[in-house]
Known about the structure:
This protein is of the alpha/beta class.
Amino acid sequence: MKPNKFSSRLLFKSEKDAGYLWHLKKVCFSRSLPSWERGRVISIEELEGRQVRLTVLYEKTFRKIKAVFRIHYPIGTQLIRIKEESGSFKALDFQIEIKSLGENLYELIERVEYNLAWPKFFSNFRKKRFEKRLSRFFEYKHEVMLQDLFDLKHSVAPLKILVTGSSGLIGSGLVEFLEMLGHKVYRLVRSQSEVKTPFDIYYHLEGGEVNRSELEGFDAVVHLWGKSIQDSWSAKNKKEIFSSRVEVTKQLSKILASLQRPPKAFLCASAIGYYGDQGSHKIDETSSPEGGFFLSEVCKDWEGASEFLKVHGIRVVHLRFGVVLSSKKGALSEVVKMMRLGVGGVLGSGNQFISWIAIDDAVRAIYHVILTNSLEGPVNITSPEPLTNKDFNLKISRYLKKPLGPNIAPIILKILKGQMAEELILASSRVYPKKLLESGYQFRYPNLEDALPHLIY
Length: 457
């Protein structure tokens, strides 16, 4: 069968060969995967003859698909050839070529030849859908590459950074970003089965046991561990939410303080739940919390658990995250799913503010905090343009070209979710990232209209 053909071209300016060198980084594979594809790289195996075997796991609605690709980098060229060895296609060949046009101007040419594993009756319909998705994939990949090239041009000397919670949404994105920039990234893991490279350090959580010599001399520790607050708020789970944040942070902080060469900076996750329900008042890092909320109390104790590190000369930062948006999981993923089913509507009055941030900005903001020695204490990791629940959902519905579903009354939410509904859905936090902006951080996606094309297919 004659293969289908698709091509994409991009003109871009960069330092000498920077575009080709970006493609040589192993982390470029995972960074090229849009979150809406729900795929993750599970292995990269070095082969002879400048080749690697890449395995990607795609989590589809009703099944998981494992795709294996062989990638070849011919010597003396700026070509990359990719062929699917197994997966969901009859055949898939992908060629990347980068041509120099002089004066730091380059052309990126990407050619795809493929045959779909579908009956001929469906082939034209599937071809149109696949090529539309392919076009969006390349738009996403080009956007990420150009952003990365900008960050690489302005990067600093390699740092030694330790990350906890590296398998989570924020942690995995942060590790990829730091590795792309050439930093030496270590992962603190809670299971011996997760120790797969010399950069994985096992930490026995129950006993607080760790090889302390492996924790010496880090430039920064980014601590992102914590049980999900999206689980049911039973008495048992609330206790685990508290202990996984407060007690574990205390334990880790004591170990770091006892080191001969402790980290220069300790960045610990927190949340804008610290502020409680503030209505429509604009709040920043200087605002006091409204009492009575479980999450507010957790955040206060969470932040207090590492404050004593300052006495040991360690810069301590509390990363107060807003709602982090990604198609992989979390609030945006749920809203999009419900809207596509026709039941995604305004929650409660719709007047409560949602302080959100795109996953890319959340990761880059953490990196900005690592590099900015003047930043300490609480730092809001949120977009400068929070939205009411009504406006948030309306903008998403317009982007998806789907009507809003029926409003859901507060009483229904409280019956279904209880205290979780009051604190996570109906409470209002109009948070402003004052410290980030005053320290010079420039948002890639300051408003939702700009973020949605990058986050949603």
